[in-house]
UniProtKB/TrEMBL annotation:
Residues 27-336 form the Sulfatase N-terminal domain. Its cofactor is Ca(2+). The keyword Hydrolase applies. This is Sulfatase N-terminal domain-containing protein. Gene3D superfamilies: Alkaline Phosphatase, subunit A. InterPro entries: Alkaline_phosphatase_core_sf, Sulfatase_CS, Sulfatase_N. Residues 1-23 form the signal peptide. GO terms for molecular function: N-sulfoglucosamine sulfohydrolase activity. Coiled coil: none annotated. One of its GO terms (biological process) is glycosaminoglycan catabolic process. The keyword Signal applies.
Amino acid sequence: MAKRLSLASLWLWLLLGGSGCRAAAPQNVLLLLADDAGFEMGAYLNKYCQTPNLDALASRGLLFNNAFSSVSSCSPSRAQLLTGQASHSSGMYGLHQGVHNFNVLPEVSALPNVLRQQSNGSIFSGVIGKKHVGPAANFRFDFEQTEEQHSINQIGRNITRMKDYARQFLAQAKQSHRPFFLLVAFHDPHRCGHITPQFGEFCERWGSGETGMGRIPDWQPIYYDWRNLEVPAWLPDTDVVRQELAAQYMTISRLDQGVGLMLRELQAAGLADDTLVIYTSDNGPPFPGGRTNLYEHGIRSPLIVSSPKSEARRHETSAAMVSLLDIYPTVLEALQLSPQNGSRFSGQSLLPVLQREPKPEESDAVFGSQSYHEVTMAYPMRMVRNRRYKLIHNLNYWADFPIDQDFYSSPTFQQILNATINGQALPWYRTLQQYYQRPEWELYDIKADALERFNLADKPKYKATLKQLQQKLFNWQVDTADPWRCAPHAVLQAQGVFKEHPVCLTLGHEAIQRPKRRVLTQYEQYVLI
Ligand SMILES: [Ca+2]
């Protein structure tokens, strides 16, 4: 047993059958979550964005190079972390706030509730920062300081305020000798230009100490010179994009300093030696091909897992194919609770990877399921990705890919839009038309084509690969009870006489000729309402 045996951990220890194979006390879990961050950090070889705290965490832990979110939207991603279920299983099909109003299904239990029930109340749970999921009863943390009580910037970007709440939470956990799960969800580096442009596109000026911006005491702003940055290959290399990246990096450095503060609080509370620390991001950066997409930059996730156990791997990278659906069983295992059964939970604990790198298998794969984002953005997509290929099924392929409000008003998208309308060239490998108009099936050889430029779905040579991945994807959809599993060419019948044996019944699309897309010639440029 570890040096500190509290009543709560004694209870758990007894529950689990005493000593033997499980010798240690439960490990606390601190989950540090970024909002729309990608790989803008030194540990992932970004040479410009300064992230000394994340880099230090990475060197104390295991850095994952093949981690993927199963969904590229905020609330559905947080729901996946907290329920262990893909968005189509949990019911969190899109954003939670305001008119979007998405929530998990009534019967879905999330981590704080599961931890409380399974441990008989001995595990202490908390969330500080952006929560963005509901209904409240299904995500009831013991300690909550979120946008439900504060302004989102104060609780998600003011790292001093977040630190103060983390100190309170840790003091309570320590005082009550309870193992804990704490989610610290930063709002950085999310955009804010569409709501509060006076603070900068990414709210990078907010709290910087500049005139009228207020000051966050613990934040030392780092200003980036956009002329000196390198634009990643998936974005247009323009001055506009460079300025956006400089602003985004500034908020990532604020997030990084916030991570440093949290880790120092953990140390100061004397809990660092008993706590597993995880860092990841809910979804990819808000640039074209990023957030709301199942393309690589929408779902590839930074992931660091750092264990204080002496035998755990550290200062290493892992090539294991992992999903953010794996976080949920990881938290349960760290706290020595049993994993949840049922095919809706497709994740696996990451703790064994901390011991030993798994052997790469041909069957290694991760899955994706995106349905909405904003309520107006009905564009369901499903995806399977193995080490080499990715298959995306665009269920509403006849519609144009939807654009969300916050991305629409971004300088990057506005530049692409205006260049397209005015017939000007852009240094970008996609056109807006390609971005909007997607075929039903997209198959990419990621190894040879990291930017997903060449769709192989119609190439005879890849017929067998396509078929195999389609089957694999469909099997996952069936296993996880995806309501969209028969879409778009059939209707799912799963009730009444079909209850025992659900079927996909054809809509007869094969007998109907679709008209060609009409090219718009005249339209209003904008409408004032
Ligand atoms: Ca997000």
